[in-house]
Amino acid sequence: MLQNLETLAREARSWPFEQARNLLDHVLKKRLSDAERTAAKLLIDAGKADEALATFEALQRPVLLETGYGPSGLPHMGTFGEVARTTMVRNAFRALTGDHWPTRLVAFSDDMDGLRKVPDGVPNAEMLREDLHLPLTKVRDPFGTHDSFGAHNNARLRAFLDGFGFDYEFMSSTETYRSGRFDAVLLTLLERFDAVQAIMLPTLGEERRATYSPFLPISPVTGHVLQVPTLERNVARGTIVFDDPAGGRTEVPVTGGHVKLQWKPDWAMRWTALDVDYEMSGKDLIESVRESSKVCRALGGAPPEGFNYELFLDVEGKKISKSKGNGLTMDEWLRYGTPESLSWYMFQSPKSAKSLHFNVIPRAIDDYLGFIDQYPAQEPARQIDNAVWHIHAGNPPKVASPVSFSLLLNLVGVANASNKDQLWAYMARYLPTATPASEPTLDRLMGHALNYYEDFVRPTKVFRAPDDKEAAALLDLAGRLRALPADTVDGELIQGEVYAVGKAHGFEPLRAWFGALYEVLLGASQGPRFGSFAAIYGLTPTIALIEAGARGELVAGS
Asked: For 23-53, what is each residue's pLDDT tens digit?
């Protein structure tokens, strides 16, 4: 599904394709001379990326995209967003190059970092306090299921990513340091220590500058990750000397996992050692990216292409903080919404700040469904910029759901439904051949709608009595619907009667009439297309609901 799209991909306007084109230019510049780059670009633009790779050996290495994870806590919304968005860029790059160029996505876990504080909500906190400052892969697992706390959280990360079907390679900081894969660049950093310090020290406060070293040795006595000054460097032996609080003056090699690096030099070292081509990060890390890029160049590497995405805000427009708990967790979103709706939300305007709260979920679900519905009728040039192309790697579902999420929410409330069976009973008239097996998306949405309604809609419903004008219009609508066949399931026919009543009773603008319907009959300020709602709920019960609303009886029952 990602082949033969090169021409469309070059012109596509969606942000993953913009990033993919930037990534292509970056890799060509990094790996080829000016003359080679011009020749390779001509071939790729002509849809002959396979010839470009065959011609230039330097292009045959896979393009490496990286995401990072700090395993002192569990995977969260930001983890998902970064992997999902990077995957979108990866797929766009594959389309841009005819899917001829191998790519890799590495999920890197910084599990050699020292445990600095005991996380909230974790069992056996006292045990963790005893293990403070140990590498996370040496901290005992408070859950008792893995060899270490780092291993436990790494397993959760992998299960998390696997559950969403991401294609990635997991890489552990501990294993990579110990394997020697970073050794060559660590020795380069030892040799260029002063150059790295010249970059890092101006970014620190006076007190921190006095003791800062990019190397964090692992104490041979306690196993702690130590933040101590480097007293001596021996480039020939590949060692540093420091004062170990538990063992006095100590010399260790910088290779083989005996040290790790401070996180900004570590990021730069990783980019260099792994030859990372692309990594995105949050807006809060703009300065860190700048500093790490300088260190990367000092180590002889080329910083990756990437961009800085905006951070999420809570319902009050404040920055989300894990410690404040003012955000939305993955489990919470997936209780009320589909994974695809979350991917849709992550796709939209990553460089714009957005609220991440429960109230965005219904709109995200229906917007996603709407984009699925639009996709088949779009021209290929529009399809490739449709969010669902990126969410589903160029192969979106053929159909979505015959019923919107907002309509389901209102049906749950009016029908006082507490389980899917009750909702399917209403669907039997409107969609007589539909079953949970034939409409799996609709079946999933019913479960989410039941959860969302119970937790968020029911507590906030406020019905009001109609005024005289509205009451007269409601009774007129009830009469017009009663004149239709009782088994009517044509939502457009019913909607036509709703429009006619609004116009006949002089509602200006007409949306005031629909607002009255929602507020009087549904206890909400907005709602679904009323004709579709009535078609599913049934004409007879809809008429009874309208008449009860006209009499003001729903206010007493709210």
From this structure: 999 999 999 999 999 999 999 999 999 999 9
Tokens of 137: 């892969």
Q: Count of residues for the chain?
A: 558
The CB density around residue 525, as the number of other CB atoms within 10 Å, is 9
CA–CA dist 8, 127 (Å, integer): 56
Least Cα distance to 278 among 53, 20, 11, 49 occurs for: 20
Separation CA 437–CA 435 (nearest Å): 5
CA distances to 400, 401, 408, 530 from 429, in Å: 20, 16, 15, 17
Q: What residues have CB less than 8 Å from 76, skipping those under 6 apart?
A: 322, 329, 330
Is 346 within 8 Å of 461 (Cβ atoms)? Answer: no
Distance from C-alpha of 201 to C-alpha of 209, rounded to nearest angstrom: 6
Q: β-pairing, 308-309 with 281-282? A: parallel
Question: pLDDT tens across 277-318, in order?
Answer: 999 999 999 999 999 999 999 999 999 999 999 988 877 777
C-alpha 369/C-alpha 367 separation (Å) is 5
Q: Of the candidates 395, 286, 308, which has an alpha carbon nearest to the alpha carbon of residue 85?
A: 308
Work out whether strand 354-355 and strand 312-313 pair parallel, antiparallel, or are unpaired.
parallel
**Pairing of the two strands 248-253 and 239-244:** antiparallel
Res. 498 pLDDT band, cuts 50 70 90: very high
